[in-house]
Each structure stands twice: as structure tokens, then as C-alpha cells.
Amino acid sequence: MGEARDNDAYEEELLDYEEEDEKAPDSVASKAAGESAKKGYVGIHSSGFRDFLLKPELLRSIVDSGFEHPSEGKDSSAPILFASSSVQHECIPQAILGMDVICQAKSGMGKTAVFVLSTLQQIEPVAGQVAALVLCHTRELAYQICHEFERFSTYLPDIKVAVFYGGVSIKTHKDLLKNECPHIVVGTPGRILALARDKDLGLKHVRHFILDECDKMLESLDMRRDVQEIFKMTPHDKQVMMFSATLSKEIRPVCKKFMQDVMFSYRLQLEF
Questions:
Q1: Nearest of 218, 221, 255, 225 to residue 240 by alpha carbon
Q2: Strands lying side by side in the sheet with 208-212
Q3: Nearest alpha carbon to residue 243 among 150, 149, 116
Q4: How far apart are CA 46 and CA 55, in angstroms?
Q5: What pLDDT, on the 0 to 100 scale, is given for residue 8?
Q6: Domains and CATH numbers, the chain
Q7: Residue 154 and residue 148: Cα distance in Å, rounded?
Q8: From residue 9, how far is each of 14, 128, 221, 225, 247 by CA, in Å?
Q9: What is the CA radius of gyration of the chain?
Q10: pLDDT at res. 91
Q11: What residues contact residue 23 under an 8 Å CB cut-off, 6+ apart?
Q12: How confident is the model at residue 82, as a pLDDT?
């Protein structure tokens, strides 16, 4: 009972920008014909990305990764990575405009490409300033996400990316931040919060706040508290993007409480 009361009390502390009388319409992705095609952690294709007017440097990285042809398939019930109604086609045009995004789709549907490419498209690197923060629940996932940022920023040499998680000496991380502050930070909530509390990681310039596998972090009260404390250290005016393979009806309202203006946020929820 005590834990339930603590949970209820904490819910009251969460930032909530929702208007009670206004509800944003859901943008529901239609299902398209196709088979999944992927390489590495992010499965994407270069054909069609030109429609998004991405930076030439990003398109070059996409081609270098071997994604030159759109997938074609016969299963009409499964979304493919790059069909016109895919996760990427639904989300990326909104994300690169700086809109808030809640994206639910099965693993392997290209969710990571949405925030990696949209962040790299928007970011204007400034020396000594963290512009984007990506949180996830495990060190393995943090490492994978960092690798994808590095892979697709190959021709954007001014953009620096770093990953921070437990199990590594915090002094090592502090020295890294002191010597060369990254523009994109990826990490687990516990380590990111420790660095921010000690003033080694500055978050006052963050413009993009991203949660990958957000349900895993927000369903755990302790981890949710860490995420919320980190969130409060970032500016009010920022883009918030959340991604997950599963979003329960109970956790969706919690996600929306992190959005600055849910009425204008873009929400893609794929139901399978």
C-alpha cells in the first residue's frame, strides 16, 4: 500500500502540459505490403529518403551502408521498413520539423532511424554544448544507439557523439566530458543523472530529448524518477521523442505528460 501511495504521489509531480478539454487526433499508420529488410541495428533504405530533403551528408551515409533499393514484398498484413506508410515515412517528416513524437512499432521496423536521422538533420553543433540526449534502459542498447549515430554522422565530422552507462569508471566519463563535450549524449538514466548532478554534464542547451524503449524506463518507478529529474534539468522548449515496441494503455498517458504540447504532438501508434 505504501508503494502505491508513493507512486500516486509521484504521478502528481510529473510535468503535464495537456489541456483537459483538448485532445490531439492520433495519426494511425496504415499497414503496407512488404517484408522487413535491415542491416545492423537500424534498417533503412536510401531510395525515398531524398523526399525528406535530408542533408547530402546523411544520404551519403545511407548509401554507404548499402541501403540503395526499397523493399518489396507480398505480405499485406506486415508494415515494411520503407513502404509509403512505414514507420519512417510516417514519423520522419514530422520529427525533422521538431514536432514531438510518440512511436510504437514492432522491433525491426526502423524506429531507431527516425530519431537518429531526424536529430542529425536538425542539430547545429556548438562547441561545449550538448544538443541531444538519448536515454535507454540498458548499456547494450545505449552502445548500439551510439554506434548508429556514429555510422550516420560519418560525413558530419563536426558532430561528436558519446555514450555513458554504469559499469565504467565515472571518472573516465567525467574526464571525457571535460576534455571534449559531445553534442549528442546517449546513456542510461542512472549514469546520466549522476553526471548531471555533479555538474559534469550540462543539459541546459538540450534541444532534443529522446527515450528509446520508453516503457521499460517509465514502468519502473525508480527509473522513471531518474528520467523525470533529468528531464527537469533540460530546457522547457525542446523536442521530445519516445519510442517503444510496446506501449500499454496505462503508460501512454505518462508518456504524454513529458510532451510540451500534446495537442500539436505527432503520435504514431501501430496496432498489430
A1: 255
A2: 161-164, 184-187, 132-135, 208-212, 239-244, 101-104, 266-269
A3: 116
A4: 12
A5: 53
A6: 22-269 (3.40.50.300)
A7: 10
A8: 9, 37, 11, 12, 22
A9: 18
A10: 83
A11: 263
A12: 32
**Contact assessment for residue 168 and residue 134, using Cβ atoms and an 8 Å cutoff:** no
Instruction: Please give the pLDDT value at position 71.
Output: 30
Contact 130, 206 (CB under 8 A): yes
pTM listed for this prediction: 0.76
In our burial notation (b when 16+ CB lie closer than 10 A, e otherwise), range 235-255 reads: eeebbbbbbbbebeeebbebb
Cell triple for 69: 533499393
Q: Which amino acid is at 108?
A: G
Place of cell 523536442: 239
Query: In the block, which residue shows the cell 533540460?
Result: 234
Distance of CA 51 to the CA centre of its chain: 22
Tell me which residue has cell 514531438: 100
Please answer whether residues 70 and 117 qualify as being in contact, where contact means their C-beta atoms are separated by less than 8 angstroms: no
Give kind and range of the element (H or E) at residue 268.
strand 266-269
pLDDT at position 21: 36
For the chain, how many residues are written?
272
Cβ(105)–Cβ(271) under 8 Å? Answer: no
What are 59's three cell numbers? 544520404
Phi-psi region of 167 (alpha: psi -120 to 50; beta: other; left: phi over 0): left
* Cell representation of residue 112: 531507431
Those residues of the chain that have pLDDT short of 70 are 1-51, 67-85, 261-272
Tell me the DSSP string of 23-47: -PPPBPPPP-------BTTB---ST
Q: Within 10 Å of residue 64's Cβ, how many Cβ atoms?
A: 14
Tell me the C-alpha distance between 153 and 35, whole Å: 27
Cell of 1: 500500500
